[in-house]
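User: Please fill in residues for this 591-position structure.
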């Protein structure tokens, strides 16, 4: 048999593809440099000279080597949000937990296997650096053996085919908020003033957006009744935010307002930067996007004027598809959507607005049908600039009721229960998640993976391998935002929630009295679950997971200033089956 050159090239390409499906190298260089974002220049963490970072694309089953070289004038680490790190707890990227932080001029090699499929993202996990722009998408193409949920949308063959093709061509959309100050400026001002800096300056879609300033009259007219209830006789600041001297929002602590910096709570200057344009082809019938919230502060409500969205995956896992018009994304959650391209061809506005009560903030992008001329009218919004329904028909995703596809069952009874109190701690900007507040300095202590007693014991819970664990997150005080609580390593079930104090000692006991507050039949499966807003009463939520991956993993709020302020807890999963750490990870923080 004789090989032609083209046959040889084909053979080479096949071998190369086979080889690259096994082991993927991805290396990034982090630098700290001035960039214009949202129309304003500030220092930003660049990933290979870009903000946001480049996407990492994998196929389920791939092994990844992810090298980080730190050229920033400060320590960094990189975490892979939602990646379970099964068997590789040393690659989770959390300083003081799984590694020492990477200092200037050093590199670190993360290595893990993509056992899961779907949408994730990598992001900074050292101090507040996620708010300095260190994040990028991760997409893991599902293997063919994973059943798709699309037949629940349509049973028609041509439709199914169009949805499969749309999924193959899916693209990530990074949604975020943005501040004009760096994370260290914000943290220093919080420590000096005693205040929780809960206002952003702009919202961004794929790193693009502008700052809009509403007039006093516009702001007063937009202020919602719920906001007015919290404001009393005060008004929103010129950046649409609650003022720093608002008692309900900041709690009853002493403050030094003279230590605030301009733009933290007020000081609006408009900018006019290009926004993102998504071009779609009506011939495709559907387009798929993977929405990723890399927001540091605000929940984000996302909608495409006049269009429906089928949400078909959440946090990197298929769900029974749900038809909605708007999604309120808690920080760090991901939603994959299929959008039917069945509207009059033209330009439609994509609207993203703050989903949090403390601030009115918005941005836009364009959803453009390829080859079409402009609509001869503005497109009709589903959602108002304050995050309310703009029509009687608008359907919001109900985040707590998404059903995994296929349904996965959780144990009916847990082996271990931890009731974790989430509250302020001695200052507006300090927080607890458990009995104590996790001091930010502890990030520089010996990693718990190597030394289980490196930090105070009231910041640690210890679980047994194989155990089913219930985490009851009890938000103790009223007037709290929704807290997106993220558990590192494997996913958890969101099994219940309620108002008031969780007065029982276990879910089993609570279920005997309030069964309707729980769902053990087809609960949502997540890596980040948000507590309900608590305007007037305390609230609680119950999360259940099985310990399958021994290691030191953080549980924390994904509102970055809350994590900085101590809303975090170390979980030593599987202390009875602790892993043997490879020497290269144990003894060195770099190579
Ligand atoms: C980032 O830059 C480095 C050094 O220039 C290069 O080797 C690497 O391939 C780049 N990574 C990506 C993801 O583009
Ligand atoms: C930076 O990281 C090194 C190595 O982990 C650590 O010794 C040092 O304390 C860190 N420095 C700061 C300022 O966090
Ligand atoms: C606003 O209300 C507070 C008490 O709720 C009161 O102390 C203060 O004087 C009021 N300020 C104005 C300007 O009315
Ligand atoms: C605020 O705290 C002070 C000191 O602890 C206390 O005297 C005061 O009653 C508190 N005020 C409110 C409104 O809770
Ligand atoms: C925010 O919404 C207002 C009112 O709809 C609009 O005029 C403004 O352009 C929007 N801002 C951005 C940055 O899109
Ligand atoms: C928003 O929804 C509520 C409740 O369904 C409805 O009463 C209201 O009319 C809607 N708002 C608009 C602007 O249609
Ligand atoms: C979501 O669904 C749950 C369960 O049906 C319900 O209790 C809750 O009120 C819904 N939430 C919203 C915001 O509609
Ligand atoms: C926080 O406040 C509590 C009770 O008021 C007090 O016992 C504790 O010492 C304070 N902790 C710190 C770190 O200030
Ligand atoms: C573990 O950390 C504790 C607390 O810092 C320290 O006393 C102990 O010496 C450390 N153990 C090892 C083996 O380094
Ligand atoms: C918090 O304190 C309670 C009561 O002392 C204790 O049972 C529980 O284990 C503590 N939790 C943590 C995380 O230390
Ligand atoms: C931990 O428990 C899981 C689930 O029972 C099991 O599959 C795994 O082998 C255990 N790991 C170790 C190291 O014992
Ligand atoms: Cu929080």
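Assistant: Residues filled in for all 591 positions:
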């Amino acid at each position: 048999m004789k090989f032609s050159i083209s046959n040889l090239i084909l053979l080479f390409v096949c071998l190369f593809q086979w080889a690259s499906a096994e082991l993927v190298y991805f290396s990034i260089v982090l630098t700290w440099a001035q960039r214009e974002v949202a129309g304003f220049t500030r220092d930003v963490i660049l990933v290979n000279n870009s903000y946001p970072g480049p996407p990492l694309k994998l196929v389920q089953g791939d092994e990844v080597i992810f090298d980080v070289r730190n050229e920033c004038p400060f320590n960094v680490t990189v975490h892979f949000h939602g990646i379970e790190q099964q068997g590789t707890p040393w690659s989770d990227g959390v300083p003081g937990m799984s590694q020492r932080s990477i200092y200037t001029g050093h590199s670190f090699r993360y290595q893990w296997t993509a056992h899961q499929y779907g949408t994730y993202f990598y992001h900074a996990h050292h101090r507040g650096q996620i708010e300095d722009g260190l994040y990028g998408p991760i997409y893991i193409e599902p293997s063919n053996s994973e059943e798709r949920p699309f037949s629940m949308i349509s049973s028609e063959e041509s439709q199914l085919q169009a949805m499969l093709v749309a999924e193959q061509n899916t693209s990530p959309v990074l949604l975020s908020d943005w501040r004009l100050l760096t994370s260290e400026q914000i943290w220093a001002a919080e420590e000096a003033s005693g205040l929780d800096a809960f206002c952003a300056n702009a919202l961004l879609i794929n790193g693009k957006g502008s700052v809009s300033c509403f007039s006093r009259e516009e702001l007063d007219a937009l202020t919602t009744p719920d906001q007015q209830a919290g404001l009393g006789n005060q008004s929103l600041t010129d950046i649409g935010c609650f003022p720093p001297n608002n008692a309900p929002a900041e709690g009853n602590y002493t403050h030094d307002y003279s230590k605030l910096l301009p733009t933290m709570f007020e000081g609006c200057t408009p900018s006019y930067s290009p926004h993102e344009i998504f071009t779609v082809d009506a011939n495709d019938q559907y387009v798929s996007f993977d929405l990723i919230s890399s927001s540091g502060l605000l929940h984000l409500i996302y909608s495409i004027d006049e269009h429906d969205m089928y949400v078909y995956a959440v946090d990197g896992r298929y769900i029974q598809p749900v038809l909605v018009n708007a999604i309120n994304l808690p920080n760090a959650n991901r939603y994959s959507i299929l959008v039917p391209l069945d509207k009059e061809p033209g330009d439609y506005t994509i609207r993203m607005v703050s989903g949090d009560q403390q601030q009115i903030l918005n941005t836009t992008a364009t959803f453009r049908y390829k080859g079409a001329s402009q609509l001869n009218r503005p497109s009709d919004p589903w959602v108002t600039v304050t995050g309310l329904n703009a029509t009687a028909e608008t359907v919001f995703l109900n985040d707590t009721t998404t059903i995994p596809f296929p349904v996965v069952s959780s144990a009916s009874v847990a082996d271990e229960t931890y009731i974790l109190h989430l509250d302020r701690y001695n200052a507006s900007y300090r927080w607890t998640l458990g009995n104590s507040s996790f001091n930010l300095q502890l990030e520089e202590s010996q990693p718990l993976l190597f030394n289980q007693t490196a930090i105070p014991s009231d910041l640690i819970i210890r679980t047994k391998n194989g155990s089913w664990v219930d985490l009851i997150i009890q938000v103790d005080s009223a007037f709290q935002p929704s807290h997106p609580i993220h558990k590192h390593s494997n996913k958890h079930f969101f099994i219940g929630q309620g108002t008031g104090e969780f007065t029982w000692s276990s879910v089993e006991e609570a279920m005997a009295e309030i069964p309707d507050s729980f769902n053990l039949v087809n609960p949502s499966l997540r890596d980040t679950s948000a507590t309900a807003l608590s305007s007037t009463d305390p609230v609680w939520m119950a999360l259940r997971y099985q310990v399958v991956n021994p290691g030191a993993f953080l549980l924390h709020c994904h509102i970055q200033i809350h994590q900085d302020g101590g809303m975090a807890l170390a979980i030593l999963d599987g202390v009875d089956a602790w892993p043997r750490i490879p020497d290269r990870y144990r003894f060195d923080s770099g190579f």
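For context: The chain has four domains: 5-147, 183-259, 277-310+327-401, 416-586.
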